[in-house]
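Hallway conversation turned thread

IA: we were arguing at lunch whether anyone had actually written out Transporter end to end. Turns out nobody had. So, for the record, here is the sequence (725 residues) and right after it the C-alpha cells. Reply here if something looks off.
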Amino acid sequence: MAGSERQSSASGLLQPNTRSVTTSDRQDEKAVLALEVEVCTGGEEEGEEFREQWTRSLDFILSLIGYAVGVSNLWRFPYLVLRNGGGAFLIPFFFFLFLCGIPLFYLEVCLGQFSGISSMFVWKVCPLFKGLGFGMVIVSGMACIYYNAVLSWVIYYLINSFQSQLPWSHCGHWWNTDLCIKYRGMQPDNANASLGINISLASNISQLTNFNQNRSSETVWKSISDISLSSPNDTVYAYNSSLNKSFTGLGEIRYRSAAEEFWQFNVLRKTSGLEDLGSLQIHTAICLLTAWLLVCLCLIRGIKSLGCVVYVTVLLPYILLTIFLVRGLMLPGALDGIVFYLKPNFSKLTSITVWVEACVQVFYSLGPAWGGLITMSSFNKFHNQCIRDVLIASLADGLTSFYGGFVIFAVVGFMAKEAGVSVTDVATQGPGLALVAYPEAISKLPLPQFWAVLFFLMLLLLGLDSQFGQFETVVAGLMEAFPRQLRNKRVYLTFGLALLSYMVSLPIATEGGIYVFTLLDWFVSAFCVMITSLIECAVIGWIYAFCVMITSLIECAVIGWIYGVDRFSDDIQMMMGKRPGTLMRLCWTVITPSIMLSVFIFTCAKYTLPVYDGYVFPMWANAIGFFISMIPLMPIPVGMIIALAQQNGSLLKRLQSSLTPAPGWGPANKKYCPLYNERQQHYSNQPHWFISFIHNLKSKIDLLPDKISSYLLLCHEQESLLPRL
C-alpha cells in the first residue's frame, strides 16, 4: 500500500478531531494537552538524514540470527533437553517460544523500526520509564564485559589447536597433576605410584593443587594423621570408570582427564576462591585483548561493516555444524547419544521446573530486553516487513538449538561408548561441554588439529555475532546522546569504549577470574532481563500500548498498557500496511507478561546462590552480586523522579503527562507525522482496546441467555410440528 493511500484510509477510519491547541488551552487544561500535543515534528533539524540504514534487508536478517544464535545454543540447550525429558522438552520450549519469545522479539523490532531510535532514547514513548533505556544500555555493557571472557577462552583453545600435538590430549605437561588420566573412563595404571603416591593410603587426605607461573605443578598432600607410605607394590584399589574415582578401603581419589586439567590448570589456573584473585594471567589478558580487537574491527563502520561481516560469522557456523554432524554420525556410539537426546519422557512435563527452564532458555537464547534488537532494527527502512524477519530469526534460533543437539550428542555418545559409561555420565552443560568434553572427543579423531581448529573457529564466530548487537547498543546510545560531538568520531568512540571495557574486565583474566565471571553471569542475566521484559510489555500493551527478566516485564507493561496496544498496532500498520492480529496483542498485554511474572516469582522462590565447581560464594560476594544486578535497574526510579519533576500541576496531572509520549516521539519517516498527530488526538477520546474487548465480550454474554431461550423455543416449536407431519 502506498503512503498516500495508507494515510487517507487511516484518516477516514479514525475521523480525528483536528482542532488546534491554543495557548489558553495549555494554561487551563494541562491534562488534555498531555494527550493532544503534537509530539511528532518533521524537518532536517531532527537529524533524520544522518541515520544509517541497512544496505540490504538480508543484512538485517543475518544480524538478527547472529544476535540470537550463540554459544548457549550448543552448550546449554542440548543438556536441558536431556535432563528435562528428551524430546518431550521441545513441547514447553516451542510453547514459550511462540507465546513469549516471538511476541517480545516482534515488539522490540517494531519499536526500533518505527521510531528509528536506539534503545537508550526509544522510551520517549513513555517519559515516566525513560530510565529503562539507560538500564538496557548498562546491562548490555555489563554483558559485553564478561561475555568477551568466553571469547578469550575460545581464542586460547584455537591458538593451541595449531600445535603438533593437542595439549589437552595427554598428560605429562607442567600443569598436569599426578592424578591425570588421558581420557575420562580410563583405568589409571601404577605409573602414579612411581611418582611417590600410594593411592591405597589416601584416606582422610584432602588434595590441594598449587600452581606457580615460575615452576611446574606440585601436588601438596595434607594428612590428618601421620601415614607411612608402603611399597608401591602394595597398592590395591578398586576403580569406578563412570565416576573417574578410585575407591580404597580408606577413602577415594578423583581422577581428572587431560582435557579437564588443561581447562582447570592451564586455561583458568584458578585459585581456591573469590577471596584470592591471584595474579593477572598474561595469556588470558592477551586473548581478551584480541577478542575486543576483533569486535572493534567488525563494528568500525557500524552497520555498514557489520552488514558485510555477518555473511561469514552467521553462515559459516552452519556449514561447520553440518560437517561436524556428518563426521559425528560416522563415530561408534553416535546413535546411542542421539537416542538419549531425543527419547521422550512425557512424565517430566508434570514438573513445573521443566516448564520454567524452558521459558528461561527462550529468553536467554533470543535475547530480548538487552536493547540489541531495538538498536539493530532502528537502522531498518521504515516500510520493511519486519514480521518476516522476526519469524525467520526466531525460528532459526530455536531450530539451531535443536540441530546443534544432534551435533553435540553424536559425539557425547561416542565418548560414552569409548569410556564404557552411560551418556548421562558424560553429558554436561556450559563451558564444561564446549571446552572439556568436546575437545577431549576431538583429540580421539584422526587429524585432531584440523577438527579442533574448525570447532573453535565455529564457537568464536557464534560468540562474536552475539557480542556485536550488545556492543552496538552501547555505541549507538552514546552517539545519540551526544550527536554533535560523536557523529563523526565513531572509530574513536568504538575503540575507546572497547579499551575501557577491556580494562574493567581484567579481573576476569586473573587466576580467580572464573569466580568473577560466574558471579556476573549469575546475577546480571538472572534478574535484570526478566524484569525489564515485563515492564516493556506493560508500557507497550497498557500505556503505549533483576535485570533482563525485570526489563522484559517493564517492556510489556509500557508498550502493552501505557502507550496502548491499539496505538502501537496503528504504528505497525503505518509501517507495514497491516495491524498485528488479536493473538499477538493479547500476548503483549496479558499472556506474555503473565507468564514472565509467574516465571520470575517461581525463580525467586526457588532461587539458589551461585556455586562453581563445589565452591560456595561467601555472603559478601553474593551481596556484591545483588548490588551489580540492581545497577541497570537504578535508572528506572531515577528517571521516574526526573520525569515527574519536569511536569507542571498536581501529582495526578504530572503522572498523566509523563505517561504521554514526549515531544520528538513519532515515526522515523517524518512525512507520517501529521497522520500520527491526528491519531494521537483520536486516542485521547477512545477507551483502551482491552476495555473495549471486555465490554464487547460482556455484551455478548448478556445476550447469550436470550439466544439460548430463542434456540430452545425454536427447538420446541419444531418438535411440536413433528406429530402433525
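OS: looked through it. The CA atoms of residues 111 and 708 lie 45 Å apart.
IA: good, adding that to the notes. Residues 386-419 form the longest helix (34 residues).
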